[in-house]
Amino acid sequence: MDRISIKAARDAAAVGKHACIQGWVRTRRDSKAGFSFLEINDGSSLGNLQVIAPAELSNYESEVKRLGSGCSVTIEGELKESGGKGQATELLASAVQVHGWADAEEYPLQKKRHTFEKLREWAHLRPRTNTFGAVTRVRNCVTRSIHNFFQEEGFLNIHTPIITASDCEGAGQMFRVSTLDPQNLPKKDGHVDYALDFFGKPTYLTVSGQLEGEIFACAMGKIYTFGPTFRAENSNTSRHLAEFWMVEPEMAFYDLFDNMTLAERFLKRIFSDVMEDCLEDMQFFDEHIDSTTIATLSQIMASDFVRLPYTEAIEILESCGEKFEYPVKWGIDLQSEHERYLTEQKFKGPVILYDYPRAIKPFYMRVNDDGRTVRAMDVLVPKVGEIIGGSQREERLDVLTERMIEQHLNPADYWWYLELRKYGTVPHSGFGLGLERVVQFITGMANIRDVIPFPRTPGNAEF
Ligand code: 4AD
Ligand code: MG
Fold it and tell me: Rounded to the nearest whole angstrom, what is the distance from the C-alpha of residue 321 to the centroid of ligand 1?
């Protein structure tokens, strides 16, 4: 007998098939007429499959009538057209096999509604809820869309290292990787002697694959990395994780405006793939999480992103009459209240801010002719704020070296990065998209911890 997913079994085309489905019981309801309704979910779709379990089943009294939320089953039967609302099919069971029971008194998801905070404590069970099932499918769709987009555009996927000796963002927010015994650290001249550590030098978990990505872009043309990144920043916000996934395309011969155009096409492609492949899940988010999400995505796909120099953004913020908690003046790093004003009040959609002050951006961004700004761009969206950060890279050896010194980095540590500028340097650009930020934006989930399977944040790494 055909083993099929519940997604396939719910399709009207499946009517008449004899099939076998496997999953977890969501609910059981006994009819007075002497049979039971079971709602089964297997993760393939938001909707459950309704199963009619007749009293003739050999284990009807002994097992079927004891089934409840959380039990796992294999059910064989015939798919019939359903008279019920909101479902095309139902399964008339001919055999029900129970694999695992879930004690109704103890099973945490027995109760229908839990807060997302509470569900975080049950990261092993929350994928069985409607919301996390939907998040999981959307996240998967975004991942597929990212690879499809870049592969179709001729980008090569490069696996950059997770353990690294260099701090890409120069922000000193790295987790150390060491095999030294913290109880017994080898010392030299009063300092820890990392020459005796595993790699013979201090090493860390990467904050970004960009620098290694640039190496490959400066040979292969267009590449992208897609991997986990780690930041030891102590920010307990709804938009920060200590471990998150980042996609980083890097393109030789692209200037900042080419970069912006790519970023905009890329985001629109992700949104349209999700609307097409995950419509049922998106309708769920629209109904239960954030009633603006589908309208927002549709509007964004149909309009151009605003492109705004940082200096003009500051002028807008200074003269808008809004009372901000953090005062605005040229040179500041924008706070989320400023970003939200621009995307939600002023432009009502995504804004690409560019040409930021050199002092607040990393060493690798190309210095503009004005000497005080760099070719940076951030893509800001309503509610979430920054989802993409990128730039045109500094391709001039002398300016790059000077910028490193200005930011207290030792050029000798980055000799290989500098050599890309020494041998056949090219103008090039790239950006980084935070996977969780984009999933958060699409779904409307308020907290970034609820769009990643196992969130790592300060003080939290239970699973
Ligand atoms: O702006 P960021 O720090 O840029 C870079 O790392 C560059 N090296 C990217 C590049 O040009 N190749 O980070 C890029 C994106 C942000 O826009 C945001 O979406 C996400 O990564 N991000 C985070 N997401 C979750 N938690 C955090 N702590 C994040 N920090 C950055
Ligand atoms: Mg950034």
Answer: 30
